[in-house]
Amino acid sequence: MGVQDVLSRKTGVIVGDDVRRLFDYAQEKGFAIPAINVTSSSTVVAALEAARDSKAPIILQVSQGGAAFFAGKGVDNKNQEASIAGAIAFAHYARSLAPSYNIPVVLHSDHCAKKLLPWLDGMLDADEAYYKIHGEPLFSSHMIDLSEEDHADNIAETKRYFQRAAKMNQWLEMEIGITGGEEDGVDNTGVDSSRLYTQPEEVFAVYEALAPISPNFSIAAAFGNVHGVYKPGNVRLHPELLGKHQVYAKEQTKSSKKHPLYLVFHGGSGSEQSDFDTAIKNGVVKVNVDTDCQYAYLTGIRDYILNKKDYLMSSVGNPDGEDKPNKKYFDPRVWVREGEKTMSAKITTNLKIFHNVNTL
Ligand SMILES: [Zn+2]
Fold it and tell me: Which InterPro entries match (predicted)?
């Protein structure tokens, strides 16, 4: 018995109720799925390879900046054109490739703050166009993050977007409370620390607003999360608070499920095993990992360049002879591959930490 036994589509990009089945299964078995921020075909490959080798499902996600990078930094992004085009390109690329890896893959877009909503609108337009032809959205899920707005506004606007997504049976992740730190130009480094911890009543208000529309939504409820890696001691995570959200929601709904809420862990880089264990025990199904993977991708390329420096200073001529060609050292398939290997190794470690190995 494994993930693939509960899915209607066993490999490739999964959508609709399969996403919920995956998360239900993860909650039941006590593991979480890493959501890897990808910015290129190379980082997609690194993530897929790690998941395949660990026999695990995976979530690939693009941020607004990552999506623009997919399009190319030379494309103007003033009305989110690059972020929309890049996100669509990413989704088609991943959809084409995922079946070759024989694992289930969730396609997701990361934080979308109020000022970035035209990006989400553009992706939803593409989802609807895809839905007309294929009967399913292009992306498995999106995130809307209006956590910087007033609580009532956040819920009302999120509900409006969820009504649109639910027509395609698409998953929606929302954020309540604030993730500290800085990511993609949204700087929350100076925010009041009380807003970094969400209350059970606030979380349940989200559930009450969204559950009548569709069960396919998750909540990133802040519990002291911060984007980026900080020195130990600088971040006080309280994943045990997530248990209180579940208990409160269970009392209110009289749900027979152990965990009525699907929860998401943001800012996973640099956290402790015990934090992940507590979070997963309390119904976290998705953990975002970005910073650690960025650094891991660099290390492979960095070490290659430093070790092979004398073979990289000119296209011909190295310590073996002044007429020796260096093509086999500067071919991007050689040095970019080194980054893929180290990023993949990092994701393999994350899969172990989240108890998501041999889960297919
Ligand atoms: Zn985040």
Answer: Aldolase_TIM, FBA_II, Fruct_bisP_bact
Rg (CA), the chain: 21
Positions of the chain with pLDDT under 70 = 182-187, 189-195, 229-235
Please report where in the chains the tokens 């409820």 appear, as a residue: 221
Q: How far is the CA of 111 from the centre of ligand 1 (A)?
A: 6
Give the Å distance between the CA of 178 and the centre of ligand 1. Answer: 9
151 has binding-site annotation? no
The confidence score (pLDDT) of residue 225 equals 82
- For residue 228, what are its two tokens? 């980026």
- 134 carries a ligand binding annotation: no
Give the residue numbers annotated as catalytic, written as ranges: 110
Antiparallel, parallel or unpaired: β 33-37 and 284-289: parallel
- What is the model's pLDDT at position 243? 96
What integer pLDDT is reported at residue 92 of this predicted model?
98
Within 10 angstroms of residue 354's Cβ, the number of other Cβ atoms is 28
What is the CA(96)–ligand 1 centre distance, in A?
27
Beta bridge partners, 12, equal 104
Question: What is the spatial distance between Cα 142 and Cα 107, in angstroms, rounded to a whole number?
Answer: 8
* This model's pTM is above 0.90: yes
CA of 173 to the centre of ligand 1 (A): 11
Residue 208, marked binder: no
pLDDT per position as a tens digit, 243-266: 999 999 999 999 999 999 999 999
Q: What type of residue sits at position 270?
A: G
282 is annotated as contributing to ligand binding: no
Say what the pLDDT of residue 194 is: 64
Start-to-end CA span in the chain (Å): 8
**Residue 253 has which token pair?**
């709904």
